[in-house]
Amino acid sequence: MAKVSAVEKNKRRRKTVARDAEKRAALKAIIKNQELPIEERFRASLKLADMPRDGSKTRIRNRCEVSGRPRGYYRKLGMSRIALRDLGNTGKVPGVVKSSW
């Protein structure tokens, strides 16, 4: 089980990203627009730099929904390999059966 503080920090980052997504996208569009004057683009880059870093989407860490484990994460299922194995063996994941030979 992951530290509760790490899991909560990641949840807080997700909320910040969702809140600031539109504003960040608008500022990035201004910065990338070559037709605008350089002063306006520079002001937009300063505003973007003043925004909280946790508002960036790249700061989010994929974590298992069951255990909070950050590694061995399957995006399609939203859980780690260990949680998948445990839940798959007990038959709680639809479409997953334990292989035996």
From TrEMBL:
<comment type="subunit">
    <text>Part of the 30S ribosomal subunit. Contacts proteins S3 and S10.</text>
</comment>
<dbReference type="GO" id="GO:0019843">
    <property type="term" value="F:rRNA binding"/>
</dbReference>
<dbReference type="GO" id="GO:0005737">
    <property type="term" value="C:cytoplasm"/>
</dbReference>
<dbReference type="GO" id="GO:0003735">
    <property type="term" value="F:structural constituent of ribosome"/>
</dbReference>
<dbReference type="InterPro" id="IPR023036">
    <property type="entry name" value="Ribosomal_uS14_bac/plastid"/>
</dbReference>
<keyword id="KW-0694">RNA-binding</keyword>
<dbReference type="GO" id="GO:0015935">
    <property type="term" value="C:small ribosomal subunit"/>
</dbReference>
<protein>
    <recommendedName>
        <fullName>Small ribosomal subunit protein uS14</fullName>
    </recommendedName>
</protein>
<keyword id="KW-0699">rRNA-binding</keyword>
<dbReference type="InterPro" id="IPR001209">
    <property type="entry name" value="Ribosomal_uS14"/>
</dbReference>
<keyword id="KW-0689">Ribosomal protein</keyword>
<dbReference type="InterPro" id="IPR018271">
    <property type="entry name" value="Ribosomal_uS14_CS"/>
</dbReference>
<keyword id="KW-0687">Ribonucleoprotein</keyword>
<dbReference type="GO" id="GO:0006412">
    <property type="term" value="P:translation"/>
</dbReference>
<dbReference type="Pfam" id="PF00253">
    <property type="entry name" value="Ribosomal_S14"/>
</dbReference>
<comment type="function">
    <text>Binds 16S rRNA, required for the assembly of 30S particles and may also be responsible for determining the conformation of the 16S rRNA at the A site.</text>
</comment>
<comment type="similarity">
    <text>Belongs to the universal ribosomal protein uS14 family.</text>
</comment>
